Structures are given as C-alpha cells and as structure tokens.
Amino acid sequence: MNQAKRITLLASLVTISVIILLVYVHQYFHNQRLATISLKVSTWHTPVIVVNRENKSFSFLLDTGMRSDLCLNATIEDDFPIQKTDTQGFITNILGNAHQKHFFYLPQLQLETLVIKNIQGFSEGAEAEEANLPMKFICQKEHDHVEPQATIGMGILSRYNFFLDLHLGEISFFHKGVVPKDILKRRYLKIPLIFEGKIPIVELDTNFGKKKFIIDTGTTVCIIPKKMQPAYLNESSEDVEMFDMNLRSGNFHLGKHRFFLFDADFSKVNADGLIGMDFLCKYDLFFDNIKHYLYLTI
Q: Coil, strand or helix: which one is 147?
C-alpha cells in the first residue's frame, strides 16, 4: 500500500471515529434530564412547582387534566410579558361547562434550566370557583400547603417526557423519546395511554367492566359522574356519595379504590371517570408522550 492510500485510509478511519463519537455524545446529552424541579403541595393535595421571575415567586399547578398550555390567575397577568391576541376559544371545566376565552401569547417561560417557548394561554377569573370540589381534606401529617396562582397543562407537558417522582417530591423533564434507565431498573407497570385532545386516558378492567379514566394530577380524588350512578349502584342507593371499585391493568391488580359521585361531565373526552391524586400518589409516574405509555413505578 503506497503512502497516499495509507493517508486516505487513516483519514477515513479518523472521520468514522469522530462521527461515532459525535453520535455517542449527542445521544448522551439527549438522554440527560432537561430540568429537575422540587414539588410543593397545594391545598387540594395536587403537585405544584415554584416559578421565579424578576425576584418574585409564583406557584404553578401541574395539571394533566388540562389540555391547554397555560392558565394564569388574572391577579398575576401583569407579572408576565403576555401579548393579547384575537384568538378565542372555549375552555371546558370538570362540570362540562364551557367558558369563552381570549387567548394570549407568551414568548417563553423558564422552569429552572428548562426554557419553554411559544406558549398560548388564557386567564381565569371567578368562573374557576364553580368547578371546585365541594369537600375538604384532613392531612395525615402536618405539612405546608401553597395556593396555585397558575396552571401548566398538557399543552406544555406533552412536549416532553416527564417523571413525577412523588416520593422524592420532584418533577424531571426529558426529551420526547427518552425513557431514563433508572425508571427501567425499577419495578413498574406500563399502561397504554389514549390521548383525547392531549388529555391522557387509560383503559382499566373493573368489576363493572372495562372503563376509561382521565389521568388527572390537577384533581384530588377519583370521580365518576353522578349521572352515571345507575351503571354502578342500584336504585336504592340514591343518597350514596361514594363507592369502591376494583381496578386492574392486564394481570396486575391495582386494588380497590374509592370513587366519588360528582356533577362532572367527561363525555367530550370519551371517558367514564377520572383518576385523581389520591390514587396516583401511591406511585411515581412517568409519562412517555411519544410512545404513549404511563409507567407506574412501585
């Protein structure tokens, strides 16, 4: 082999090695956490993060039951550089009531090291109070609560894969397609997700047949619409406000859980009920928003 061929071969080997190294480095950084943020607990025992902006702190609820990007309480609108738009739409609450909204545009929102761009949102006023659950909760252990001033919905959350580590009290964001190795090392249940307008829904086996449930981190308890009561209870149970239901995914028994009968309406997302934080808090939750799976880690 002459000198010119040796040099060409060496250059080719170096090029291939550099390409392999670059692919490895890209894959390594792609798989890393984009951000990890501590969780707080709301008055309703739902997950909240603190967003800092210009020496002020704001409490943002993480709500997988809201399809929009962002909802701001009207009292903090002026603290964010929102731009009013001519876009209008209807936002439907848990009662099934639709309220017309004017949407705003927010260029970006920074959550620790994660910068989220091109956000569409709306402001909420007094109409938000009508959807509050008519119940209070007694904490088993004394701890601080925060009152949410804004809500981050699936419009933002579905842009990433994310891990709600409820036992450590933190949320981690990953690129879509990334399932961290430490998740796969745990014992977990992998449940297919059905998305209706970005709302995550699971189908589970129950003692009443197969049922579809919204996975809603923004609601405290599990709910069945009161109008569906005859499908679960006999006619003599008119005054019953709750009942127990057995839940199972495949061969994995998720146990018996209490569902509350509430004047809710989930027909627009083709769901039979809602699973809230009183059930979800038993697990850590990983949402794979590209392959559409919910991992319940045990």
A: coil
The answer for residues whose C-beta is within 8 angstroms of residue 205's C-beta and 6 or more apart is: 247, 248, 249
Alpha helices in 38-166 (DSSP H): 154-157
Place of tokens 């731009």: 83
End-to-end CA distance of the chain: 61
What is the residue whose two structure tokens read 């601080």?
144
Distance of CA 133 to the CA centre of its chain: 19
Nearest of 196, 186, 164 to residue 288 by alpha carbon: 164
User: Would you give per-residue pLDDT tens digits along the chain (298 residues)?
Assistant: 666 666 666 655 555 554 444 434 334 434 579 999 999 999 899 999 999 999 999 999 999 999 999 999 999 999 999 999 998 887 877 777 777 888 999 999 999 999 999 999 999 875 555 555 555 555 666 778 899 999 999 999 999 999 999 999 999 999 999 999 988 899 999 999 999 989 999 999 999 999 999 999 999 999 999 988 888 886 555 566 889 999 999 999 999 999 999 989 999 899 999 999 999 999 999 999 999 999 999 7
Q: DSSP string covering 19-60, please?
A: HHHHHHHHHHHHTS-SEEEE-EEBTTS-EEEEEEETTEEEEE
What single DSSP character describes residue 146? B
> Which of 242, 197, 221 minimizes the C-alpha distance to 132?
221
Which residues on adjacent β-strands are paired with residue 19?
none
